[in-house]
Amino acid sequence: MKIIIVDDYKAMSKKAAIIIANQIILKPNSVLGLATGSTPLGTYNELVELHKEGIIDFSQVTTFNLDEYYDLSPDNTNSYHYYMMNNLFQYINIDLENTNIPNGITEDIDKECESYDQKIIQAGGLDLQLLGIGANGHIGFNEPNIKFESKTHLVGLDEKTINDNSRFFENKELVPKKAITMGIKNIMQARSILLLASGIDKADAIEKTVHGSITPKVPASVLQLHPNATLIIDKLAASKLKTLS
Ligand SMILES: N[C@@H]1[C@@H](O)[C@H](O)[C@@H](COP(=O)(O)O)O[C@@H]1O
């Protein structure tokens, strides 16, 4: 696991965008795994800027999002479909046909999950998977005690996650209790992984991810096993790492 500690959120976002830009420049038809939440917003802004400056061309890029809330339609402002369109896709020259997000309003969950896994394989696998991290160590929506061999599936969300994500909703009752998420196996099959974390709220999860035992209790700890995983974290998120004390 490579760890890059930067001063703040802005520096984290710039560094992440540079790594993603480099991936696209080296391989214009890259397959990117994308994340949502507040953490990657700055990275997406930086990517939009790099695109505007003519540095990155998304025309051949394919994307797969990690997850989507169950039972939220794509036009719901809290859906991850809406998030991606609003924060990235509408500002870049990506072919929307090449963007993939689990369908949260599918009538056949098993079929949806299976076909999502198939589509990733057909696209040649993920070149780079971008990740945030939940305060309980979740990645995507793979909550504590998830099986490491899991593929795309429907999950029940932890009380902690529902509470954390309620800030985006009018009230906690409106936060979906379930989501469709890529599994740990999909994430670990990516050729490279970039995990971002910023702020003191993530310090415990980062400490456990880096120094803790590899356990489904802290899903992100599985990244210790990945041959090409990079953590870009700001000083606050890194503040509980042994190397700093
Ligand atoms: N499914 C997403 C995760 O992919 C994200 O990493 C996490 C942290 O979000 P934030 O970046 O807002 O702290 O939130 C959600 O649960």
From TrEMBL:
CC per GO annotation: cytoplasm
GO BP term, example: N-acetylneuraminate catabolic process
One Pfam entry name: Glucosamine_iso
Superkingdom per UniProt: Bacteria
Keyword DNA repair tagged: no
Keyword Hydrolase among UniProt keywords: yes
Biochemical pathway: Amino-sugar metabolism; N-acetylneuraminate degradation; D-fructose 6-phosphate from N-acetylneuraminate: step 5/5
Active site residues of this protein: 67, 136, 138, 143
Enzyme Commission no: 3.5.99.6
Keyword terms of this UniProt record: Carbohydrate metabolism, Hydrolase
GO molecular function: glucosamine-6-phosphate deaminase activity; identical protein binding
Coiled coil: none
Catalytic activity: alpha-D-glucosamine 6-phosphate + H2O = beta-D-fructose 6-phosphate + NH4(+)
HAMAP family according to UniProt: GlcN6P_deamin
Family: Belongs to the glucosamine/galactosamine-6-phosphate isomerase family. NagB subfamily.
Its biological purpose: Catalyzes the reversible isomerization-deamination of glucosamine 6-phosphate (GlcN6P) to form fructose 6-phosphate (Fru6P) and ammonium ion.
Protein name: Glucosamine-6-phosphate deaminase
Annotated source species: Caldisalinibacter kiritimatiensis
Gene from which this protein is expressed: nagB
